[in-house]
Design brief:
Helices cover 70% and strands 0% of the residues. Helix 2 packs parallel to helix 5, helix 3 runs antiparallel to helix 7 and helix 3 packs antiparallel against helix 9. It has one domain. The chain is mostly helical and 265 residues long.
Length: 265
């Protein structure tokens, strides 16, 4: 830091270097995203949700004939559903719980006093989720191949479904964390995770449920993501526009609601 002295007057002009001020918005978001990613990967409870549970479910249900998944190999049915579960566990459950307790401990209150805008924080958190999901997808794909998985379809369709699904679940997680108390968020996020694991078409096919319930369950984001990935990866179909439309609808509504109702404290 340098201090410049005015000539002839003997008084400081107050010219300091470097000049104080907020960093560029893109740099603030990338720095926050890097911090969020480090915190996410260091949390043991988060790793249980994001890595251990999806991996165990994939290995167990692919190796042991517990649920009738229809024709073909079990791993071909289960892998798309477990990929959808991994997205939900990271973008929704894990993010909701972590953000909820950040509100409780005053972390978000201090961030609110920084130049980082509310939508910038949400963008950074979503970016950190995407980085974590890349690691999840790589790990689960390697395990699935080892179990005999034979994927089909367009990789771009799979990528688009995963990104839009992430946006939908991230918006829902931030909405929950930004409106409920931390303890309520913890309980609600885990309950929703368990309910969607059973009734979201992840492990149990939706056609095993009553016909009336199938129509309702099919509108859930995890069901749309599971079915869309399954159509592409198991059956080699093109872009599943119906499932993609459901995910887009959830993403738009959830992110808009989170942006409007999210509270910093």
């Amino acid at each position: 830091m340098t201090l410049t002295t005015g000539t002839g007057s003997g008084t400081a002009t107050g010219a300091y270097a470097p000049k104080p001020g907020a960093a560029p918005l893109a740099r603030m978001i990338s720095a926050q995203a890097a911090l969020e990613t480090k915190m996410l990967l260091r949390n043991g409870e988060q790793l249980l949700l994001t890595v251990v549970i999806p991996t165990l479910l994939l290995v167990l249900f692919s190796s042991v004939d517990i649920v009738d998944t229809g024709t073909g190999e079990s791993v071909d049915f289960l892998t798309p559903g477990v990929l959808a579960l991994a997205v939900m566990s990271t973008a929704f459950t894990g993010q909701a719980i972590a953000t909820g307790f950040e509100r409780r401990y005053g972390v978000l209150k201090r961030l609110a006093a920084s130049p980082l805008p509310r939508w910038g924080l949400m963008t950074a958190k979503t970016a950190s989720v995407l980085v974590t999901e890349v690691l999840q997808v790589v790990l689960l794909t390697v395990i699935a191949f080892a179990l005999g998985w034979s994927p089909h379809g367009d990789p771009f369709a799979v990528l688009l479904l995963l990104v839009v699904g992430t946006a939908a679940f991230s918006g829902l997680g931030l909405l929950m964390a930004g409106t409920l108390k931390a303890e309520a968020t913890l309980a609600a996020a885990n309950l929703v995770f368990l309910l969607l694991l059973v009734g979201g078409g992840v492990i149990v096919p939706l056609d095993k449920f009553p016909s009336g319930a199938q129509d309702v369950l099919g509108l859930l984001p995890v069901s749309a993501l599971s079915d869309g990935l399954r159509d592409v990866l198991q059956h080699g179909a093109g872009m599943p526009w119906g499932d993609l439309g459901i995910l887009v609808g959830w993403a738009v509504v959830a992110l808009a609601a989170a942006g409007k109702f999210f509270r910093w404290e």
